[in-house]
Design brief:
9 strands; 57% helix; alpha+beta; Beta-Lactamase; five-stranded antiparallel beta sheet; 4 domains; rod-shaped
Length: 480
């Protein structure tokens, strides 16, 4: 008889289809995806499926007591579903339900309301009255009691807060979870229409609670989001103010290196980057990342043209984990243009110094060989001449050779030390004169100095100046 009632049959088929669809979707997400919040989603789908199943059984139960028992189960499952929804949304929007104070508050509220609901046969706190109806099929009609009012507040608050979190994600991100969040919000809004219609009595059976009809709408919308907008492929990344204000380009990609989000700095750095770029491989968007592979060691630096100026960026890649496995990557480009310019300038200076050193080494080689070889020959010939002839002129030549040798040593020292003639130090003339006077043969000559307060600039190392002064003093002493 019940099956002969077309409306009852329609309701039963609808509930059965909803239960099967919900179980299938929950199983698929749990077993075939790695969405970080899949466990909470699976719990939500399980409760929705059981809620639809209870409603399905209720269509076929003609007994009043069994209908009241099913009402208790139906109420408990409905309250639990609201909690599971809020916990899932918190987890999906990159929170931790177990650490969320809000989720804990709703858990306590849910437990309190469930405690009232399971004792329905003994009081009228939840429903002020429960009437058994037989047309068009067996069901119970309830009127709102104090507990039901509290449950309505709990339900609207939980659904509203979850929707708010999704809307917040919707307005704060560019990537495809924006579409996912919008689809979920649409599913919630459409899903609560049967619940609202039941409250005001605008339904085919005014005395029957049609809330569960919203489950099918919600599940169908979520199914669309799963298969059309990759709802389960990549858990959203919270875009708090810290991320939004990062001044360096930041790209968020999925495990297949497709772009899923970016900050404003990235939009300025990469020409043509906009919301239509979402889903495009990052290698096709950013020059220098054409061969980017998360499993391989990527490029250390990329160069981009920003406002007509070439800018250089270091590449930092971080793994994004969505409990428990990696789901994507963050690519942060640090602007190192000034550092790169300084490094290039230092490298150019180093190369110029190397070339200068090579020229100095070449000069030192010329001084060491091309000057010393003739000097050695001259010194050898002088020794031979001094053994054959005793002449003061030969002694003068010998001293000249010594001076040339000293000059060669100074030139080699200058060339090999790399100092220039413009790198000077200040010396006291009186001190240099006294030092030089002690190193030359002066016979009975004496030194009188009137330069005690004067100084001169000389190249580093006083040997050059000292040799000059020594030579001058020696010559003067011999000629006086």
């Amino acid at each position: 008889m019940i099956l002969g009632n077309s409306l009852a049959t329609l309701y039963a088929v609808f509930y059965a289809g909803t239960a099967v669809l919900t179980v299938g979707l929950g199983y698929w997400v749990l077993s075939r995806t790695e969405m970080g919040s899949r466990r909470w989603f699976g719990l939500l789908m399980g409760l929705l499926s059981f809620w639809a199943l209870v409603s399905f059984v209720g269509v076929f139960v003609p007994d009043r007591q069994l209908q009241e028992l099913l009402l208790t189960v139906w109420t408990v499952v409905g309250l639990s579903t609201v909690f599971a929804w809020l916990a899932f949304v918190v987890d999906y929007t990159d929170g931790d339900p177990l650490e969320s104070r809000l989720v804990r508050v709703f858990a306590l509220a849910c437990l309190g309301l469930v405690a009232v609901a399971v004792t329905l046969p003994f009081h009228d706190l939840y429903y002020s009255s429960v009437l058994f109806r037989t047309e068009p099929f067996a069901h119970v009609e309830t009127t709102v009691g104090p507990g039901r009012v509290a449950a309505l507040g709990y339900t609207f608050s939980g659904v509203g807060l979850g929707t708010y979190y999704l809307l917040e994600l919707f307005v704060s991100t560019r990537y495809r979870s924006r579409t996912q969040a919008l689809v979920l919000v649409a599913g919630i809004v459409l899903g609560i229409l049967p619940f609202t219609a039941s409250l005001v009595g605008v339904t085919p059976v005014p005395t029957y609670n049609h809330t569960v009809f919203g489950i099918a709408t919600f599940v169908l919308v979520v199914t669309y989001a799963v298969f059309r907008h990759s709802f389960a492929d990549f858990a959203p990344i919270a875009r708090d103010i810290v991320v939004a204000e990062i001044e360096d380009p930041l790209f968020i990609i999925d495990s297949d290196t497709h772009l899923v989000d970016y900050n404003d700095a990235a939009g300025r750095a990469v020409r043509g980057l906009d919301s239509h770029s979402i889903g495009t491989p990052v290698s096709a968007l950013v020059d220098g990342l054409s061969e980017f592979d998360p499993g391989e060691e990527g490029p250390e630096m990329v160069s981009l043209t920003v406002d007509g100026e070439s800018r250089h960026y270091s590449v930092q890649v971080s793994e994004v984990t969505a409990r428990p496995s990696p789901r994507g990557y963050l690519i942060l480009l640090r602007d190192i243009t000034e550092q790169t310019i300084r490094e290039r300038e230092l490298e150019a200076a180093r190369q110029e110094l190397e070339r200068s050193n090579e020229r100095l080494e070449e000069f030192a080689s010329v001084v060491s060989h091309d000057l010393r070889n003739p000097l050695n020959v001259a010194s050898l010939r002088l020794d031979m001449a001094q053994r054959e002839v005793d002449s003061d002129h030969l002694d003068t030549v010998d001293r000249a050779h010594d001076r040339i040798e000293s000059l060669v040593e100074d030139l080699l020292l200058l060339a090999r030390s790399g100092t220039g003639v413009d790198e000077q130090t200040r010396l006291s003339l009186a001190t240099v004169a006294d030092d030089c006077w002690q190193t030359v043969e002066t016979a009975d000559a004496t030194l009188r100095s009137s330069v005690s307060s004067r100084s001169v600039q000389t190249p580093p190392g006083s040997s050059n100046c000292s040799r000059t002064c020594s030579g001058t003093r020696s010559t003067t002493a011999r000629q006086t």
